[in-house]
């Protein structure tokens, strides 16, 4: 009898501990909103699981040491390389781009293109003058959508490259307010200014290709006056007419897909009538 009652208390204690553990796991599961992690908690560090929630397991390797001399050599090796990104990879054909862009540039025997995967590509040039000429004549589009194309730099970022240099023409500035300062204020709102041509009301600006393009701006002056200017992007091809991004057609716009049919129609008419 003594042995029996002792066993029951041990058993109850075990059940109690098990129950509290299960409750803890369920509570954590509720906050993480993913049942599969309940079973994984015992085996993997918490931060690793949170980083990779709902995806394949993310495992860290040992630290890799690369000598400075090797890094310098690599940077020199890619000094004649342009790196690019398809802004709408769902439509743009990478194979065709890698073959056809050198022909469009008329330097097919002096440049070698390669698909880097994930919508990225590179072109290795024989001569710096060809590379500079290609950069000067941008921006470029392919299959009706823009590409980002920049001189390669040792940058680690999932959004690199995304810069697109546009020439932008401004209209709507009254004659007496037609100053470099006005164009500069507008250009700074659009991106990073490369050049300003006051006489023609144009500026070159580097924009982040993942951000919505600005087509209208309100420019206030210290006199208390305000003007509304319109922007025209030269060589622009393909953008969503709802959110003004370069990455998708309007029918696939994530903002529209979020809403219901009725809301979608309302948003469209609002956006078209409003300022950007
Ligand atoms: Zn959109």
TrEMBL record:
Domain DUF4283 stretches: 76-155
Pfam family of the protein (one): zf-CCHC_4
Name of the featured protein: Uncharacterized protein LOC109128838
Organism: Camelina sativa
Positions of the Zinc knuckle CX2CX4HX4C domain: 211-254
């Amino acid at each position: 009898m003594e042995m029996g009652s002792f066993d029951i208390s041990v058993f109850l204690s075990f059940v109690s501990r098990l129950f509290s553990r299960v409750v803890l796991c369920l509570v954590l599961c509720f906050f993480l909103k993913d049942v599969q992690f309940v079973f994984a908690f015992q085996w993997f560090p918490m931060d690793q699981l949170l980083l990779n929630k709902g995806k394949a397991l993310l495992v860290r390797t040992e630290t890799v040491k690369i000598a400075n001399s090797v890094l310098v050599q690599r940077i020199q090796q890619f000094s004649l390389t342009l790196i690019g990104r398809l802004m709408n990879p769902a439509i743009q054909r990478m194979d065709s781009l890698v073959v056809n862009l050198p022909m469009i540039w008329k330097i097919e025997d002096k440049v070698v293109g390669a698909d880097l995967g994930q919508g990225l590509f590179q072109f290795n040039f024989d001569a710096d003058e060809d590379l500079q000429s290609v950069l000067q004549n941008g921006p470029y589009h392919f299959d009706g959508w823009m590409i980002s194309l920049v001189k390669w730099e040792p940058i680690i970022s999932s959004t690199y490259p995304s810069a697109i240099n546009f020439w932008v023409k401004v209209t709507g500035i009254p004659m007496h307010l037609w100053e470099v300062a006005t164009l500069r204020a507008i250009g700074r709102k659009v991106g990073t200014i490369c050049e300003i041509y006051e006489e023609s009301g144009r500026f070159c600006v580097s924009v982040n290709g993942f951000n919505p393009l600005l087509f209208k701006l309100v420019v206030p002056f210290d006199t208390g006056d305000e003007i509304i200017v319109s922007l025209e992007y030269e060589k622009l091809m393909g953008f969503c007419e709802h959110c003004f991004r370069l990455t998708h057609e309007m029918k696939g716009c994530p903002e529209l897909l979020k809403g219901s049919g009725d809301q979608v129609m309302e948003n469209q008419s609002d956006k078209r009538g409003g300022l950007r």
